[in-house]
Amino acid sequence: VISSITGDNAAEGSNNTFSVSLSGTTAAETTIVLTLAGDTATKGVDFNGTSVIVVINGVSQTVPVNEDGTFQVTVPTNTNSFSVQVSTIDDNIYEGNETFTLSGAGTNSIVTGTATITDDGSNGGTDDSPVVNGISSPTVSEGESATFDVSLSNASTTATTVTLTLAGGSATAGTDFTSSEVTITYQDGTTQTVAVNGDGSFEVAIPAGDTTFSISVQTTDDNVYEGSESFTLSGKTATQGTAITTTGTIVDNDEVPTIKSIGTGDVTATEGDALIFTVKLSNVSSTSTSFDFLLQDGTATSDDYGAASFSNGVTYDASTGKITVPTGVTSFTVNVPTTNDSIEEADETVKLTIGGKEVIGTIVDNDNAPVIDDATVNNLSESIANGTEVYDVHEARTGNDTDLDGEALQYTFVHSNNTRSTTSEDGAFSIDPGTGKITVLDTTKLDYESATSIVLKVETTDGVNKDTADITLNLTNVNDSDTVFTKESETFNYAEGTAAGVTLGKVTATDADGDSISYSIAQEHNVYAADDVNKERPFYQVDANGNVSLTEAGEKAFTNDYESGRNTHTITVTATGTDGSGADTTDTIEVTLNETN
């Protein structure tokens, strides 16, 4: 009978050997029945289940194995042990250590020995532990999922743990792709979301029998131009020395930035101030971007403006004629200084071109000459009081004493010799240099009889530019000259019987003011009949031209009869000069009237 059976460890593909010991030395040829059976190893799959090699005393023989695993060994005389060799099957499936048994009858029970088939490269065999032998390199548009197809070298009868690492390249983890989780798709189509560690590592347990799986990484669809970017996926198993690394490529779907706009329209600035152009890009870029830049004359020349400067780190290279916009910048300003000169000129222009976009900058001239208008002042009394304001000169367009540029104005009179003064040439007027108010300085210089109007030439200036205007003052006359008869007295002789209204003689008075002169005979200075107590019927009259004649009462009076009474009478004629001012002047003359026969 069998006392013991001992199996060994052998690499897959080699022979396992069972050592069989008998309870004693055989005295005669003996037949022993043994049974070959699978344990974790499968007969016919992992080891040969149809025959074995029996070695007795150094002699080998092949013994067939029955379907039920039994076979017979004939042991010769004087033998106490032998061995049974079982060949194992070398496959490419990782199974780990597998066992099978050989058993036979012992003294009181069945004696069993166990042999181990190793599959890990020990015992000189081939290591069937799966390794990562391939990872695809996907290329996707940003916003799409990048799928890495992973393959293992061979299948395993147990789950295989694969350690993988997700890392950024030119793409940034967490920004350009999701680095916190991935989606695993197994060979049977099922999916699983796996969390990614902070260092980018994660593990995937690949089911037994699977040799492929995929890992999907979500990329980010942003509006930043980045160009194509890459990141990596590395993977290996526990028995694998060096990880397999591959690259995923994210193709940017954003265009290279262009110049979207330069302001909302043409730009203006008053000369001396800067033209400020606000430039906007179409989208952001993860790299610096260059654009053609040209600032050129319009109607303005290089003397009217200076070199441009830029905000937000934008630089200009004169050798290339390009500006460079830094990473991440989507807007900036271009500042063009302008020259504040003293030349009165039309508004001037420059043209700015950036990346094919054009805009006009207008330099608004601030050297507008002041404008004052001619004016006429009527009815200015020649006797107006000193200090009286007669006219206020001001800027015609602003209505005050500043021009369109806001510059204060100064006023003077211009004399005939082209000199300037705040006093008029005749000394009659003064002008306030700051307000342009003209006032009477010396009223005695005004004389209607000498000049009925006065023209004052006024000049105003903003310090650079100037204008002149004629201010015409029309005087009104004041009755300041006496009315004077041309003679001190008159004697008129007239014939007896002269009819009423017939001119007896004419008196004449003059007035230097040229006033209208009227003539009259005061009641107390006329001649009346003795019975005309109330002096209602005078004998003499004078008309508007100074013609003296008899009234009807005078014609009928006895005094008009030379033979009837006194023939000499005296009257007083008054001449009155009237100019409408209320300041009338008068003169009188005695007229002797001699009636002749």
From TrEMBL:
A single MF term (Gene Ontology): calcium ion binding
UniProt-listed SMART domains: CA
Domain Cadherin: 380-485, 486-597
UniProt keyword terms in alphabetical order: Calcium, Membrane, Repeat, Signal, Transmembrane, Transmembrane helix
CDD domains per record: Cadherin_repeat (cd11304)
GO biological process: cell communication; homophilic cell adhesion via plasma membrane adhesion molecules
Protein name, per record: Cadherin domain-containing protein
Organism lineage: Bacteria, Pseudomonadati, Pseudomonadota, Gammaproteobacteria, Vibrionales
